[in-house]
Amino acid sequence: MDLPPRLRRAVDDVLEGTALSDLAATAEALSQRYRAERHDAKLHAISDRDALAYLAVRLPATYAAVRASFDAVAEARPDFAPTTTLDIGAGPGTALWAASECWPGLADAVLVEASPKFRAYGERLAAGLDIPHVTWRVADAAGDAVDDGPRDLVSLAYVLNELPPAVRHSVLQRLWAQTADTLVIVEPGTPAGWQRVLAARSQLIEAGAHVIAPCPHAHACPLQPPDWCHFAQRVARSRVHRHTKRTDVPWEDEKFSYLAVSKKPGTRAGARVIARPRKAGGHTTLKLCRPDGSASDQVVSRRDGAQYKRARNADWGSLF
Ligand SMILES: C[S@@+](CC[C@H](N)C(=O)[O-])C[C@H]1O[C@@H](n2cnc3c(N)ncnc32)[C@H](O)[C@@H]1O
């Protein structure tokens, strides 16, 4: 997946004049921080250089993960057409860009971000969007009351892991109360990220939420450690990205876990493909999570006709 061209250009403009070699070490520290799941309660963008490194190396990946999660909502709820949105821990506005690509009718957005640096860059990027009302708030989502009205779409992307564990429950409770329709949570696709998503899932089901995606059911998750539910998006790396990451590989795979819950049930059902399909001559093996709450491999062979064709076209993350 590529960044939308307008966002790509806006990011390139912001990075213009920045010595990429300066960003490389910061970007490496940022990536290590993600890989190690280090949560030292320091907000990411405390320095200008951190924020620029995030734009260069993390934004394309988090954009792809959030966009894929929103696409899954749009697939399960084709009737959903949000006009208002609230994004918590907005960073440079990643989720707003993904939402506006997915739902062009968005008219009013509130973005809450603790770091003034991120907010400043986010505001600059969002100037290129056609959303009539975009309001940024520098606030601590863990403590401050962030927005009063209910919003059609509420998102929390790559933020749960930054909130102290003791406040996650109350933050989710507040966000669910502010959700008029759908709440989407995205986390890094690590076993720990999945555990945070599972805890949120149990809490929200108990609060009456309908699970929209990725799970095709509200039963207990059938996966057991060391397995975990996650997805991957292939992200094209720009020249700046490759340079900052000191690599020639033109793409990277962003692994993510997510959950979309809604006040209304989904209208499209099916099993979810929860691993990369294994395609061999004459048959394809899909690992499926099913509406009855079970998960296992299904082998679909050429003899299965139309179903085989669908299996050949299935991707990791799609409905089958
Ligand atoms: C990893 S970034 C994710 C940014 C963006 N959502 C994305 O997906 O690219 C996490 C963001 O959450 C913000 N954040 C962390 N804790 C927060 C809090 N308590 N209140 C508001 N923002 C917070 C950080 O400043 C940072 O911008």
Per-chain topology:
Layout (H helix, E strand, L loop, with lengths): L4 H11 L4 H16 L12 H29 L7 E5 L5 H9 L5 E6 L2 H11 L6 E6 L12 E7 L7 H13 L1 E10 L2 H16 L3 E4 L17 E6 L2 H6 L6 E12 L9 E2 L4 E3 L2 E7 L5 E7 L4 H8 L7
Parallel strand pairs: 1-2, 1-4, 2-3, 4-5
Antiparallel strand pairs: 5-8, 6-8, 7-8, 9-11, 10-11, 11-12
Helix pairs in contact: 1-5, 2-3, 3-4
S-adenosylmethionine (SAM) binds next to α3, α4 and β2.
Question: N-to-C terminal Cα separation, in Å?
Answer: 21 Å
**Rg, please?**
19 Å
Largest sheet: 8 strands, mixed
**Structural class of the secondary elements?**
alpha/beta
Strand content: 15-25%
Name the helicity range. 25-40%
Shape: globular
Low-confidence stretches: none
SS summary, helix count? 9
Question: Which ligands, by name, code or SMILES, are bound?
Answer: S-adenosylmethionine
Overall pLDDT: 90
H-E order = HHHEHEHEEHEHEEHEEEEEH
User: How many β-strand runs?
Assistant: 12
Description:
The structure is a single chain. The chain is an alpha/beta fold and 320 residues long. Helices cover 37% and strands 23% of the residues. It contains nine helices and twelve strands. The protein has helices at residues 5-15, 20-35, 48-76, 94-102, 116-126, 165-177, 191-206, 239-244, 306-313, and strands at 84-88, 108-113, 133-138, 151-157, 179-188, 210-213, 231-236, 251-262, 272-273, 278-280, 283-289, 295-301. Strands 1, 2, 3, 4, 5, 6, 7 and 8 form an eight-stranded mixed sheet that branches. Strands 9, 10, 11 and 12 form a four-stranded antiparallel sheet that branches. Helix 1 (5-15) packs across helix 5 (116-126) and helix 3 packs parallel to helix 4 (94-102). The longest helix has 29 residues, at 48-76. The mean pLDDT is 90. The structure holds S-adenosylmethionine.
